[in-house]
Inverse folding.
């Protein structure tokens, strides 16, 4: 019985080897190329987008201005001080990364920077969460 199976297998293999190849063999699957990207200006990084004056949606007397890597805060027209901003990959490691979506603030008197995660960042809106507390701070743009 085993010999019959072996002979049948050899015979089928011989027939397959002698058969002419199909005229149009099926094409091998080829990975589709991605569609070309739409030509557009390079997306601005977080710090560039944050430049300008922002007002709290919860307390309109709370305003800050970001110029370069400096944030100047004012409350009810009284200066509160300046802090340095650094964009970081995340608030866990706080590794500087230009394309990160978190940032730190550090004043001259601060022992360590405070870290914030971006919730929403757009032309007219900036919402972020203070990672130590988890509360969200929402702001609207006053000036570019």
């Amino acid at each position: 019985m085993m010999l019959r199976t072996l002979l049948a297998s050899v015979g089928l293999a011989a027939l397959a080897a002698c058969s002419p190849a199909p005229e149009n063999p099926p094409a091998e699957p080829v990975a589709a190329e991605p569609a070309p990207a739409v030509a557009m200006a390079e997306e601005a990084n977080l710090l560039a987008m944050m430049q300008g004056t922002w007002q709290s949606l919860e307390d309109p007397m709370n305003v800050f201005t970001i110029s370069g890597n400096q944030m100047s805060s004012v409350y009810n027209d009284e200066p509160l001080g300046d802090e340095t901003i650094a964009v970081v990959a995340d608030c866990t490691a706080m590794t500087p990364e230009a394309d990160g979506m978190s940032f730190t603030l550090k004043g001259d008197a601060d022992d360590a920077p405070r870290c914030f995660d971006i919730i929403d960042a757009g032309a007219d809106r900036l919402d972020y969460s203070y990672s130590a507390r988890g509360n969200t701070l929402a702001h609207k743009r006053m000036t570019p």
